[in-house]
UniProtKB/TrEMBL annotation, chain A:
All copies of domain Nitrite/Sulfite reductase ferredoxin-like, residue ranges: 558-621
Domain NADH-rubredoxin oxidoreductase C-terminal: 317-381
Organism placement in taxonomy: Bacteria, Pseudomonadati, Pseudomonadota, Alphaproteobacteria, Hyphomicrobiales
Superkingdom in the source lineage: Bacteria
Regions that span the bilayer: none
Listed name of the protein: Nitrite reductase large subunit NirB
Residues annotated as domain Nitrite/sulphite reductase 4Fe-4S: 631-767
Automatic annotation (TrEMBL), chain B:
Source organism superkingdom: Bacteria
Gene: nirD
CDD domains: Rieske_NirD_small_Bacillus (cd03530)
Rieske domain sequence ranges: 3-99
The keyword Transport is annotated on this UniProt entry: no
One matching Pfam family: Rieske_2
Keywords: 2Fe-2S, Iron, Iron-sulfur, Metal-binding, Nitrate assimilation, Oxidoreductase
InterPro entries named among the record's database cross-references: Rieske-like_NirD (IPR012748), Rieske_2Fe-2S (IPR017941), Rieske_2Fe-2S_sf (IPR036922)
UniProt source species: Mesorhizobium retamae
Protein name: Nitrite reductase small subunit NirD
Xref: Gene3D superfamilies: Rieske [2Fe-2S] iron-sulphur domain (2.102.10.10)
Length: 816, 109
């Protein structure tokens, strides 16, 4: 008969335990889970990327609803267990469900510690623990007001960095003299503080909170010096406490956490516990690696498979803030019997310190460059005597024993039991054997089968190197997808080499980069032409034979070989004279269809190719220029009527749209660029699904980017808020120039942004004025050569051959 | 064989194409990077795309509508696609290009 297994809590630890259990004994239990949170199991350590905007909730779900259905697991969402009856062997939820158990697992996790100061209950005071907290923070961040984060540990700093990314003015209060003092020594703590300050985050150490002030909601934090720091959001991240209330009431043995033996069994032989609520051998844990180890131990116990026991091991600390690399493990306190080796590179912001006792590593702190963390950890774990390599130890693995500085060789030199993935406790040997046994070839497969790099992802590079070593030549990481079959090189590599080698023609690129075909193909030639146009404005002569037909004849080819023509209507504004001219052209050339486009323009469809120059001539007479509706370039800037007419408009959205369009028309981009300007957050111009959009607000202009409404539908991300039209134009132009310089051909802004990171774009465009200006200047320079109306050029005879047949023959004459 | 004079090599852009109009349809005339000239039906067997508007690479052209690739030498679709277009003999004499009238008749039939 199947036994009943009931689990209280649905976090990462029980989720992982179930994976192991279902693998070892799929049919042994009928499983019921009670989750106090109203959702499935998600990756809690990825909350920070959700807060900062680098990931969406859907991307961090570990087990979707389908997983529970597939395994026949009953999941009660939003049910908090309020009582365990050990006599009757039942649990009861706050919604009145009572469930009997044969075996019970308590995985209630931890609760955030709230410092007992006056004002801690005020609305606007949050903790940072689950998705609801992140949701509340994101809501608060919309104000773009001031936030105070109390606590300069791992969670507090990730929260601060995320809120800063979301546009808030952030101050971190930390009670100790340096940040993350439990994981970092003072020197590394200082470097970390400097890096956070460079991002615009204010850090106050030795700051004691006296109370949180506010009338009905938070208005500020008062320090014990009497100083008040204004804030509309206060995040408390001063630590967590094991959540033991339920276990205590049930009469289980509880100290700091729920006490278990090394097989995760509590003082009741039918009740087990795992996760942050557990105390085993006097220790409680907060990082994921030991919790996953507990999951393995418990699964083995429940499955009756072997005698696995939980053994303590140190877990490295990493901070999940993009662009800040730190790594710490073990004991780094000073001591009489201890020695240390330190490397500092002030210019590069690098600090490395290894702490030795009896010639063995007992602790490591790395900042700025953390690639050797795994190696130091391995030496520490194995207690290797390092006296032989003492002189070069601090330089890392690449400098040892005559090994080359090849990072691949460094990974090759790692022992089979060297840990690659700290979160999931996966060693090199496990990855190698899984790849070989299951014939895996992609990173996703390796993640699915071994879990290596599937949690925080910081070891992805190492995992890829292990794959490269194991698979040899057959390993072809997706990141270097060749441009096309004419070359082995990827888009990024080609772009880089074009600049680095000063290649200024398509034949030069093909010669120098050893193209495998005589003159490329229809995939690489348009891409190369764009890279050269964008890379060498003024120097490069556009190769029309490498452009798609639409860009060659400046109209859109239709299914029957005719063309459509869309004249530019700046900001979507037109006049009686313009409409009359269009009507006349339609009549004169018997144009079959006239249609209004989604981008507020008028499209004339079904024009014969031979008629194009004459159509353009007439349109040109009325003052029209090409609308570039065919171009991988700036298409339209859609606008609403803004303050001119609208009773809700906050700024002159029409005027700004026209200004942007007049400034940017004619520029070539990797893929089409569509823009819009809305005069108020009602957003009538639909700016939040465009490549670049502006939402006007009372205080200025909110710039959006990376939206899509085509094959993919995606709302925009916020780039930042600026006060004036001039600032808005500068930021938009700089953003588009960054995109022009970095994106792969045919890659829309939202895909490029996802690849390079929203943070990085915001940092370069909004937080770095010098860089923004440089991008802006480069765009302005390239516009000198781009802003030529292609229609009037062709009306005056350019590329005449394009529009006329080479010869005509009357069939009967020819047949004679 | 009867030949129809259609113009000079310079009338066609390098790695480009022009077309010749006939009462029963168009003929695409292609000039490759190494100055060879080919003539094929200007009509993709897939959805009728005008091949003379496509990108010319090597001795092949990519259709502008859905990216089918045809060999200019054989008229056959390359890669995974199946289909072909008629090829028309071309003669270059003293820098002037002529296409074969007989084949033209057949192609147009």
């Amino acid at each position: 008969m199947t036994e009943k297994l009931v689990i209280i809590g649905n976090g990462m630890a029980p989720g992982r335990m179930l994976e192991h259990l279902l693998e070892a004994a799929p049919d042994r239990y009928r499983i019921t889970i009670f989750n106090a949170e109203p959702r499935v199991n998600y990756d809690r350590i990825m909350l920070s990327p959700v807060l900062s905007g680098e990931k969406a909730y859907e991307e961090i779900v570990i087990h979707g609803d389908g997983w529970y259905i597939k395994h026949g697991i009953m999941l009660y969402k939003g049910h908090k267990i309020v009582a365990i009856d050990r006599e009757a062997r039942t649990v009861t939820s706050d919604k009145g469900v009572t469930e009997p158990y044969d075996k019970l697992v308590i995985a209630t996790g931890s609760v955030p510690f709230i410092i007992p100061v006056p004002g801690k209950e005020l609305p606007g005071v949050l903790s940072y623990r689950d998705l609801d907290d992140v949701g509340a923070m994101l809501l608060a961040a919309q104000s773009r007001d001031r936030a105070v984060v109390i606590g300069g540990g791992l969670l507090g700093l990730e929260a601060a960095a995320g809120l800063k990314e979301r546009g808030m003015d952030v101050t971190v209060l930390h009670v100790m003299p340096t940040l993350m003092e439990r994981q970092l020594d003072p020197a590394a703590g200082y470097l970390l503080q400097k890096q956070l300050e460079a991002r615009g985050i204010t850090v106050r150490t030795k700051a004691n909170t006296r109370q949180i002030v506010g009338d009905g909601k938070v208005q500020g934090v008062e320090l014990d010096t009497g100083e008040i720091i204004p804030a509309t959001l206060v995040v408390m991240a001063v630590g967590i406490r094991p959540n033991v209330g339920l276990a205590k009431e049930a009469g289980l043995e509880v100290n700091r956490g729920i006490i278990t033996d090394d097989r995760m069994q509590t003082s009741d032989p039918d009740i087990f516990a795992l996760g942050e609520c557990v105390e085993v051998d006097g220790r409680v844990y907060g990082l994921v690696a030991p919790l996953y180890e507990m999951a393995k131990v418990m699964a083995a116990k429940l499955a009756g498979a072997g005698d696995r026991r939980f053994v303590h091991s140190d877990t490295p600390t990493k901070l999940k803030v993009t662009g800040i690399d730190l790594y710490s493990i073990g004991d780094f306190a000073d001591g009489e019997d201890r020695e240390e080796i330190i490397l500092r590179d002030a210019a590069a912001g690098i600090y490395k310190r290894v702490i030795l006792q009896d010639n063995r590593i007992i602790g490591t702190v790395l900042f700025g460059e953390t690639a050797d963390g795994a190696w130091f950890n391995d030496l520490k774990k194995k207690e290797v005597d390092i006296s032989e390599m003492r002189d070069t130890l601090i330089f890392g693995q690449a400098f040892q024993g005559g090994a080359s500085a090849d990072p691949l060789a460094a990974v090759a030199a790692l022992a089979d039991d060297a840990e690659i993935c700290g979160c999931n406790g996966v060693c090199k040997g496990k990855i190698v054997s899984t790849i070989t046994e299951k014939g895996l070839t992609s990173l996703d497969d390796v993640r699915a089968h071994t879990k290596a790099s599937a949690s925080c992802g910081s070891c992805t590079g190492l995992v890829e190197k292990v794959m490269a070593l194991t698979l040899g030549d057959s390993y072809n990481p997706a990141s270097v997808q060749p441009m096309c079959t004419c070359t082995e090189l990827g888009h990024d590599e080609v772009r880089r080499l074009i600049k680095a080698k000063g290649l200024k023609t398509i034949p030069a690129v093909m010669q120098e980069l050893e193209w495998k075909t005589s003159c490329g193909c229809a995939k690489c030639r348009p891409a190369l032409n764009y890279y050269l146009v964008a890379g060498w404005p003024g120097d490069y002569a556009d190769d029309y034979q490498s452009r798609f037909i639409n860009e060659r004849v400046h109209a859109n080819i239709q299914k029957d070989g005719t063309y459509s023509v869309v004249p530019r209507m700046w900001g979507g504004v037109t006049s009686a004279a313009e409409l009359r001219a269009i009507a006349d052209v339609v009549d004169k050339f018997a144009i079959p269809t006239v249609k209004v486009t989604g981008g507020q323009r008028i499209d004339m469809l079904g024009i014969r190719k031979e008629d194009l120059p004459a159509v353009w001539a007439d349109l040109g007479q009325a003052g029209f220029v090409s609308g570039h509706a065919y171009a991988k370039g700036l298409r339209t800037v859609k606008t609403c009527v803004g303050t001119d007419w609208c009773r809700f408009g906050t700024q002159d959205s029409t005027g700004l749209g026209i200004r942007i369009e007049k400034f940017m028309w004619g520029s070539w981009t990797p893929a089409k660029v569509k823009m819009a300007v809305s005069g108020c957050p009602r957003n009538c111009a639909e700016a939040t699904c465009k490549d670049v959009g502006v939402i006007c607000v009372d205080s200025g202009y909110e710039i959006h980017f990376a939206g899509a409404a085509g094959l993919d539908i995606k709302g925009t991300e916020v780039l930042g808020l600026v006060r004036t039209e001039d600032e808005a134009l500068e930021a938009i132009v700089a953003l588009v120039q960054m995109y022009r310089e970095q994106a792969r051909y045919l890659e829309r802004i939202y895909k490029w942004a996802k690849r390079v990171g929203l943070d990085e774009i915001r940092r370069q465009i909004m937080a770095d004025p010098d860089r923004r200006k440089a991008y802006f200047e480069r765009f302005v320079f390239s516009q000198k050569f781009a802003q030529v109306d292609p229609w009037s050029e062709r009306v005056s005879g350019k590329d005449k051959h394009e529009f006329q047949p080479m010869a005509e023959t009357d069939f009967r004459v020819a047949a004679e | 064989m009867d030949w129809l004079d259609i113009g000079t090599l310079d009338d066609i852009p390098l790695r480009g194409a022009r077309c010749v109009k006939t009462p029963n349809g168009r003929i695409g005339i292609f000039r490759t990077h190494d100055d060879r000239v080919f003539a094929i039906e200007d009509h993709c067997p897939h959805k009728g795309g005008p091949l003379s508007q496509g990108i010319v690479h090597g001795a092949a052209v990519t259709c502008p509508l859905h990216n089918w690739v045809f060999s200019l030498e054989t008229g056959k679709a390359l890669g995974a696609d199946e289909g072909s277009v008629k090829t028309i003999p071309v003669r270059i004499e003293d820098g002037r290009i002529a296409i074969a009238l007989g084949a033209l008749l057949q192609a147009a039939e």
